[in-house]
């Protein structure tokens, strides 16, 4: 299934967001890539603004996944998780990236440009694209518990 991906980040994540967006654009598993900013390093729009803009696209069904980059990957995850229906994680290792989709059905992956090497981030995003949540798995009921808390 070709995916619609949103990318975004603040100025602390700008360089990685640009590099990872280019990778996504050339990956045949990706249908569309939408960039919600920031569009230049000098733009000091705060991380919650870009994170919420991306997360709202997921919540409205306009995108399947989002990749958000800030300095640590923490602030964008906190902000994205405020949007109802969105599950965002910060992950910089293979197992966490895998489980974020397979266990948590997270639609949003967040990374920190000041935390992880670029080549590792690129490899993790490549892995992430190949992961799919199984709604028949034993994890599904736990994700449903999150939805229930949100009143879904
Ligand atoms: C810089 O504003 C930095 O605080 C931000 O990019 C992020 O790391 C926040 O969690």
From TrEMBL:
Keywords carried by this UniProt record: Isomerase
EC number in record: 5.3.1.6
Keyword Isomerase appears in the UniProt entry: yes
Enzyme superclass (EC): isomerase
Superkingdom assignment: Bacteria
Protein name in UniProt: Ribose-5-phosphate isomerase
Organism: Mycolicibacterium parafortuitum (Mycobacterium parafortuitum)
UniProt lineage: Bacteria, Bacillati, Actinomycetota, Actinomycetes, Mycobacteriales
């Amino acid at each position: 299934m070709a995916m619609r991906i949103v990318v975004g980040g603040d100025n602390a994540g700008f360089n990685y967001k640009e590099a990872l967006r280019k990778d996504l654009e050339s990956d045949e598993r990706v249908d569309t890539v939408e960039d919600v900013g920031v569009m230049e390093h000098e733009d000091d729009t705060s991380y919650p603004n870009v994170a919420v803009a991306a997360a709202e696209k997921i919540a409205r069904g306009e995108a399947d996944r989002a990749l958000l980059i800030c300095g640590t990957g923490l602030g964008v995850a906190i902000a994205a998780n405020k949007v109802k229906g969105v599950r965002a994680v910060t992950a910089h290792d293979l197992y966490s990236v895998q489980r974020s989709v397979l266990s948590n059905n997270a639609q949003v992956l967040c990374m920190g440009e000041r935390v992880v090497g670029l080549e590792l981030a690129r490899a993790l995003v490549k892995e992430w694209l190949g992961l799919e949540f199984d709604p028949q798995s034993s994890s599904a009921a736990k994700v449903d518990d999150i939805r229930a808390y949100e009143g879904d």
